[in-house]
Design goal:
The complex is a heterodimer of chains A (about 475) and B (about 290). By secondary structure, chain A is of the alpha/beta class. Chain A is built from 17 helices and 16 strands. Chain A has a 5-stranded parallel β-sheet with strand order 3-2-1-4-16. In chain A, strands 6-14-7-8-9 form a 5-stranded parallel β-sheet. In chain A, strands 10, 11, 12 and 13 form a 4-stranded antiparallel β-sheet that branches. By secondary structure, chain B is an alpha/beta fold. Among the domains of chain B are: about 1-90, Beta Barrel (Elongation Factor Tu (Ef-tu), domain 3), CATH 2.40.30; about 100-210, Nucleotide-binding domain of ferredoxin-NADP reductase (FNR) module (Rossmann fold, 3-Layer(aba) Sandwich). Helix content of chain B is about 35%, strand content about 30%. Chain B has helices spanning about 20-25, 70-75, 110-120, 140-145, 165-175, 190-200, 235-240, 250-255, 260-290, and strands spanning about 1-10, 15-20, 35, 45-55, 60-65, 80, 85-90, 100-105, 125-135, 150-155, 165, 185, 205-210, 225-230, 230-235, 240-245. In chain B, α5 packs parallel to α6 (about 190-200). The longest helix of chain B is centred in the C-terminal third of the chain and has 30 residues, at about 260-290. Chain B is globular, with a radius of gyration of 20 Å. Classes of the chains: A alpha/beta (about 475), B alpha/beta (about 290). Chains A and B meet through β5 and α13 of A and α1, β7, β14, α8 and α9 of B.
């Protein structure tokens, strides 16, 4: 390709087609439609192919970004997919849900003068292409005879399992739900991550020889000690996530129609309540819905409520737009879909009707004061600013605490004050020999890719342990 | 998949099933429950484990047909399988030698109180069981409860068997007579548990209730089963299902249980209509099958 065409195509990224807002609020299908091969090649040609690529440093699993993009530019999409799979077990998922704008794309050299290369969209394209064209990217290694139990089948568990299986270990995943995928299936909605994609990734894992035991609540059905001592596993990886919803602790929180985001999304996504009565699980289809919180889960909840037919959906956040932790893209999508943002607003009480259902929410206005320990300006209530907002459904999306089922049933597993498992950030090694942990159960609620990174590092350490090396050594 | 090895109709619309779940059969303790899903489009719902047979690898569940999911479950037969059985969930009953324990079970709540009666007896307590139903044909597990009770009193609302009235009336009488009671355990419909707590409160007798709210995952992940206990929010699935009855906000629990009342009614109606439409077809097929 000549220098001139390169320059001319570098001005702006190739846009990705999307379902128009007025159409998509009536269905649960994916919103961004993906690149065509031509679009992907055009976008790939914007990449400068830096010798010392800063983008790679922004990636928690260090995907060889310039290399896979180069293959897309050359039209060898399968080769691009293969490069992705070398470092990332779940590229079709990461291409969709990673916050690229704060990771790889943030460091892209092009971003300094114009828009960074759309690395996430290209990752999605190459991964989808490879999957749809049925190329098995990698074969497992020779069996080592070692057995590893992976607890939880979310991003951390799936990644850890995939890497260990590829190294020849016999891996069994234990999942509490009746479907594997963790937050990828119960939490993230179909319109942001189609479940077929998660299913395909899980099937790929099975082809690598990974066994999946569903409906297995570790801590109850079997303990970690039983896995090690009675079931004969050589090591255990705990990736159970941050599965304990935080509530606001204000009056009226237990009224009917008040949900945690976990419950609301699980009902809709995993149990398919959006297709009630064809599926049996019910969900309150509110007319006026308030979502409390400003993260991605809050956006997912608000957009789900809209699709379930809500006339008005308020997103109530106690700080301002700048402090919102949600991805810019998700905020943008929510706004396009008519979600009404109420910044600097905090609920203080939920009011119920005579049947015990929420009918309104009393809120107060906030203003930003001094920065708090997170570095963000602390919201302070404005006296006398209280007002009532009529709502018939409330979704509380202010975060999750680590689920205590495993820590409370594994005596010698050390936890931090907030209930997270203490693990070496480089290896995932916990206080208990042969037991590793990673993802939200260690860090508290974070992102899919960070959990995957932890699963990956733990897989390396477990491999060193099982092959006679020192698991505490990092490469 | 969990095969059904035994099915019995205990009372109109009340079934007992033994279900293969070897690991749960070994691990479960009194007071714990399972979450079931009958079919691919089904919902998840909790049922107390009434008993288990570790050698046979089965657990026993008892349920009343109240909605579509329990109706679907009741339509399975021996040899059929339940799609998902998750457990054992919840904290086991706190069992120790308390002294004199009164166990109250009302209606289909007699099933969950049965393992508690047994565990209390086996821990060396003097157990008085008060079981009740609307009428004698709805009374279940009488023999089983009798086996582990020092005293058993049966009550029916209509007087068709035993004492005419509520089991809480008997409890009140016992306490007014000055009988010494160290612990009361009450399991059943919300009004029964609330009434039991009202009776014991003035006597300051510790009273344990086992709550059965709407649940989804049963592992603390969704918080759908939350109740207010002593002014604090608790998750029944991981903090319970048993709580100090004097601290439970029963009013709120009852209201939360009615959250999906209307949708549940529609689901059940739809399923029943479906069955009506299919019935002539099934009969026709059966006729054809038997025609030589």
């Amino acid at each position: 390709m000549s220098e001139t065409t390169k320059t001319s195509s570098r001005a702006a990224r190739v846009p990705m087609r999307e379902q128009p807002p007025e159409e998509r609020i009536r269905n649960f299908r994916e919103v961004p439609l993906g690149y065509t091969p031509d679009e992907a090649r055009a976008e790939a040609s914007r990449c400068l192919q830096c010798k010392n690529p800063p983008c790679v440093k922004g990636c928690p699993v260090e995907v060889k970004i310039p290399q896979f993009i180069r293959k897309i530019r050359e039209g060898d999409f399968i080769a691009a997919g293969r490069i992705l799979f070398e470092d990332n077990g779940l590229p079709a998922i990461c291409g969709r849900v990673c916050p690229q704008e704060t990771q790889c794309e943030k460091l892209c050299v092009l971003g300094k003068k114009s828009e960074p290369v759309a690395i996430g969209r290209l990752e999605r394209f190459a991964a989808d292409y490879t999957r749809e064209h049925g190329r098995e990217p990698l074969q497992p290694a020779k069996p080592t005879g070692k057995r590893v139990a992976v607890v939880g089948s979310g991003p951390a568990g799936l990644t850890c399992a995939a890497d260990l299986a590829r190294l020849g270990h016999e891996v069994t995943i234990f999942e509490a739900f009746h479907r594997p995928g963790g937050v990828l299936v119960y939490g993230i909605p179909e319109f942001r991550l189609p479940k077929d994609i998660v299913h395909a990734e899980v099937e790929r894992l099975k082809r690598l020889g990974v066994k999946i035991v569903l409906n297995a609540v570790i801590g109850k059905w079997a303990t970690v000690d039983e896995l090690l001592n009675e079931e004969g596993f050589d090591a255990v990886f705990i990736g159970t996530g941050a599965g304990l919803p935080v509530f606001l602790g204000i009056p009226g929180e237990n009224l009917g129609g008040v949900y945690s985001a976990n419950e609301y999304l699980t009902r809709s996504n995993l149990m398919r309540a959006y297709d009630w009565p064809n599926y049996d699980t019910p969900i309150v289809r509110g007319r006026h819905v308030a979502v409390i919180g400003g993260g991605n889960v809050a956006m997912d909840s608000a957009r789900t409520a809209r699709r379930l037919g809500a006339e008005r959906v308020y997103l109530v956040y106690r700080r301002s737009r700048q402090e919102m932790p949600a991805r810019v893209e998700e905020v943008h999508h929510a706004e396009e879909e008519g979600i009404e943002f109420m910044f600097l607003t905090n609920p203080v009480e939920f009011l119920g009707d005579e049947r015990g259902k929420v009918r309104a929410m009393r809120c107060q206005r906030m203003e930003l004061g001094e920065p708090d320990e997170s570095g963000r300006r602390r919201p302070v209530p404005i006296p006398g600013s209280e007002f009532e907002l009529e709502v018939d459904t409330v979704i509380v999306a202010i975060g999750n605490m680590p689920n205590p089922l495993i820590p409370s049933t594994t005596p010698d597993l050390e936890t931090a004050r907030k209930g997270t498992i203490i693990a070496d950030p480089e290896t995932g090694q916990t206080s208990k020999p042969r037991v590793f942990a990673g993802g939200d159960i260690v860090t508290g609620a974070a992102t899919v890719i960070e959990a995957m990174g932890a699963g990956k590092r733990a897989a390396r350490a477990i491999h060193r342990l099982l092959t006679g090396g020192d698991p505490t050594r990092t490469e | 998949m969990h095969r059904i090895t035994e099915k019995r109709l205990l009372a109109p619309r009340v079934y007992l099933m033994k279900v293969e779940a070897p690991r749960i059969a070994v691990k479960r303790k009194a007071g714990q429950f399972v979450i079931l899903r009958v079919s691919e489009r089904g919902e998840r719902f909790p049922l107390t484990i009434a008993d288990s047979d570790p050698a046979a690898g089965t657990i026993t569940i008892v349920f009343q047909v109240v909605g579509k999911s329990t109706r679907d479950l009741s339509m399975l037969d021996v040899g059929d399988a339940i799609l998902d059985v998750v457990g054992p969930l919840g904290r086991p009953t706190h069992v120790e030698r308390f002294g004199r324990v009164v166990c109250i079970g009302g209606g289909v709540g007699i099933a969950p109180v049965y393992p508690i009666v047994r565990a209390m007896k086996e821990a060396g307590n003097h157990v008085t069981s008060l079981i009740s139903a609307r009428s004698r044909d709805l009374l279940i597990l009488e023999e089983e409860i009798a086996r582990y009770s020092d005293v058993l009193v049966v009550a029916t609302d209509d007087g068709s068997k035993g004492f005419k009235g509520f089991p809480t009336d008997i409890l009140r009488q016992m306490l007014e007579e000055g009988q010494k009671v160290d612990l009361v355990v009450a399991v059943g419909p919300v009004p029964l548990m609330r009434a039991a707590c009202k009776v014991t409160a003035p006597h300051r007798i510790p009273t344990v209730v086992s709550l059965n709210p709407i649940m989804v995952d049963g592992t603390g992940m969704c918080g759908g089963c939350r109740v207010t206990v002593g002014g604090q929010t608790k998750f029944v699935c991981v903090d319970g299902p048993e709580f100090d009855g004097h601290q439970v906000d029963f009013d709120l629990l009852a209201k939360r249980l009615r959250t999906y009342e209307e949708m549940e009614r529609i689901s059940l109606e739809r399923a029943s209509q479906e069955e009506c439409r299919l019935e002539p077809v099934i009969r026709a097929i059966q006729r054809e099958d038997t025609t030589p």
